Amino acid sequence: MNKTIYIQDLGIKDYANTFDYQKQLFDDIITVKKKNRAENGNLKTDNHFLFVEHPHVYTLGKSGDINNLLLSKKQLSDKGISYHKVDRGGDITYHGYGQIVGYPILDLENFFTDIHKYLRFLEETMILVLAEYGIKGERSDGETGVWLDVGTPFARKICALGVRSSRWVTMHGFALNVNTNLGYFDHIIPCGIRGKAVTSMEVELSKKVDIA
């Protein structure tokens, strides 16, 4: 098993090109796994972790409802926002400047084969990061991601999660609102959940946070 993870910071990169790069890395791992199975081989599979900031984009998961996007094609164009329907779980979300997006492209057979455990580990990573800044992140039962003030009228999401897994290889990942312009969430029903607010580290700390 190969537990080495190659980390890349892609800086600011548009969603479509980043998706293509993710898919290339994902497909390379799948190809090795297929070859191992066909030839009873023992080639190692790679693991990757991409960090990126996207220009304004809405993405809709494979089981998402397009009605959760509240803008027309023309309005999207006028506002300079792109839109993509993608093959991850979850509903609609926003990516934009001031948000850290992480894409772990891992062969979970190098670590453990439990997708629910993987999601909980991603949440725990974000909870621990937020704790470093004095922000108390929490899980909300039945709602993937990281939230603040769960169980109160002031519950708000600070990190969204959505992944895809095939042959235990993962794609997509998390989006942590750092200095994000939250106004862009007004044009969607985030993650398809009505009546729940979103927040950012900047809002919670009343100051901008160094993205690096």
Describe what this molecule looks like in 3D.
The chain is of the alpha/beta class and 212 residues long. The chain has a single domain, classed as Bira Bifunctional Protein, Domain 2 (BirA Bifunctional Protein, domain 2). Helix content is 26%, strand content 30%. The chain contains four helices and eleven strands; from the N terminus they run βαββαβββαβββββα. The strands form two sheets. Strands 1, 2, 6, 7, 8, 9, 10 and 11 form an eight-stranded mixed beta sheet that branches. Helix 1 links the parallel strand 1 and strand 2. The longest helix is centred in the first third of the chain and has 25 residues. The protein is globular and about 55 Å long. The mean pLDDT is 93.
What is the topological layout?
Blueprint: E1 6-12, H1 15-39, E2 48-53, E3 57-60, H2 73-79, E4 82-85, E5 92-95, E6 99-105, H3 115-132, E7 138-140, E8 143-148, E9 156-166, E10 169-177, E11 197-198, H4 201-205
Give the gist of this structure.
The chain is an alpha/beta fold and 212 residues long. It has helices at residues 15-39, 73-79, 115-132, 201-205; strands at 6-12, 48-53, 57-60, 82-85, 92-95, 99-105, 138-140, 143-148, 156-166, 169-177, 197-198.
